[in-house]
Amino acid sequence: MSVPGSGGSGNDNSSLPHELSSKTQFLNLKLYVFIAILLTCAALVSVLVFLCLCLSKKKSTNRKMRVKHSSGSIPLVSKEIVEIEDLGRRENIEKLEGKFVKEAEIVVVDDIEVGKKKSSGEEETDDVSAVKSSDVSADIGWGRWYSLRELEIATCGFTEENVIGEGGYGVVYRGVLNDGSVVAVKNLLNNKGQAEKEFKVEVEAIGKVKHKNLVGLIGYCAEGSQRMLVYEYVENGNLEQWLHGDVGPVSPLTWDIRMKIAVGTAKGLAYLHEGLEPKVVHRDVKSSNILLNKNWNPKVSDFGLAKLLGSEASYVTTRVMGTFGYVSPEYASTGMLNEGSDVYSFGVLLMELITGRSPIDYSRPAGEMNLVDWFKGMVASRRGEEIVDPLIEVQPPSRALKRALLVCLRCIDLDAHKRPKMGQIVHMLEADDFPFRAEHRPPREREPHSSHEAVPDKVPYPTKHTGVEDAERLRRR
Ligand SMILES: Nc1ncnc2c1ncn2[C@@H]1O[C@H](COP(=O)(O)OP(=O)(O)OP(=O)(O)O)[C@@H](O)[C@H]1O
To answer: Which of 30, 125, 236, 265 has its CA 20 to 30 A from that of 367?
Structure first.
């Protein structure tokens, strides 16, 4: 085959226009050869520029990002949060290659009853079989190992548009897997020192914990120095956004929805404390760690990042990990940590649900900045009805309000041993006749082991420290 300009026959040149076959002064090349070289150079430069742009975009995702992602209907809590549009990435992602799997072995347990795992092979979907045959190492029993590449594809290269938010543990991205399922990918900070083996052991412990009121961990990624956790995506934002964001004059969180959130959260924590061995103390119960689905069902997040505890001993940590305003006094002062610390934080969270106020709010008058102190003072002055969130349109029934107030007071007892257990709190919040039924009975009928007792016998009554008089007075009214 003769190549134009390669010094072939004169017939080749004669077929070209005279100008093209004439020689240029530069290097004595034929004009069309010169043009071909120029075009090739231009194409190369374009490719290089494109590659540079891609690289710089990727780098920008590695820096600390402050953009938060939420669906358009989720209220924003601070100016750091900006709304972004759903970019319809799913269509693009579906075109990309990758191996994905539907969650195979998630076992959702109801309350604190541990469900049975599906035996392997039972009710397997096509997707699961595909992965088992093609990528056996990906299936890790409770969830999945994900490659960095898979998560890159799912999050469109960890782009800013996919950032949901940023917490103490790292940046959280929204991702869409190849099968269309949506996940939250937490890119952990400060993980360089952690060996892959240790990381896997810790993650395994978290991944096996499944409960309808706990955000499920569905997999992880450990490649090089990268450590990521892949969670089920909870679509309706977090409780902090709904309580303290701009929701207009009437909150969509009615009294009943708030109590549903309180009970669900209590069930999730009860499972951590009472349904697992070794038990798990959350250590950071707060409204931003309560995620909500579209039916306002709460799911407690970040629980797995707490330490696993032995069943008997309390655990002493060297630094207090919780969040200001929620931390129990004994944990703050001694670092002594047990599930009672979570109960205290839950009490503060319940106050937040009832009042719509933040645990610490410096914009309020001096006597109202600290929610716990203000709350106790209001209840002591019999002004319980006045503390209900003004954004709740329909006021709660008096009995329901008193029940919730009393549970708060018991949870924040300064004596951690006198606080109720989370399981007891679930019963207290759900029992229609708590605390009213007990007070009409003569003392002997309230002996332990009465099967009709609405309140579990072990539930301690509030002590002086938390204003036992207030609570007792409240109970009698
Ligand atoms: N599984 C999830 N589904 C949907 N959104 C999530 C999920 N996990 C976290 N988020 C959101 O990502 C954001 C950051 O979460 P993260 O738990 O990292 O931090 P935080 O709870 O705000 O703070 P901290 O780390 O101090 O507890 C929050 O807005 C949270 O609502």
So the answer is: 265
CA–CA gap between residue 258 and residue 353 (Å, rounded): 6
Ligand 1 mean position to 166 CA, how many Å?
A: 7
pLDDT at 350 over 80: yes
Contact 215 CB / ligand 1 (< 6 Å): yes
CB 175 within 8 A of CB 189: no
CA distance 475 to 473: 5
* Residue 34: band (very low, low, confident or very high) from pLDDT cuts 50, 70, 90: confident
Ligand 1 pocket, residue 234 CB under 6 Å: yes
Q: Is 167 in the pocket of ligand 1 (CB under 6 A)?
A: yes
pLDDT score recorded for residue 294: 96
Rg (CA), the chain: 30
Given this model, what pLDDT does residue 97 score?
Answer: 30
Burial per residue of 332-360, b for 16 or more beta-carbon CB atoms within 10 angstroms, e otherwise: eeeebbbbbbbbbbbbbbbbbbbbbbbbe
Residues that constitute the known binding site for ATP: 186
Q: Tell whether ipTM is more than 0.90.
A: yes
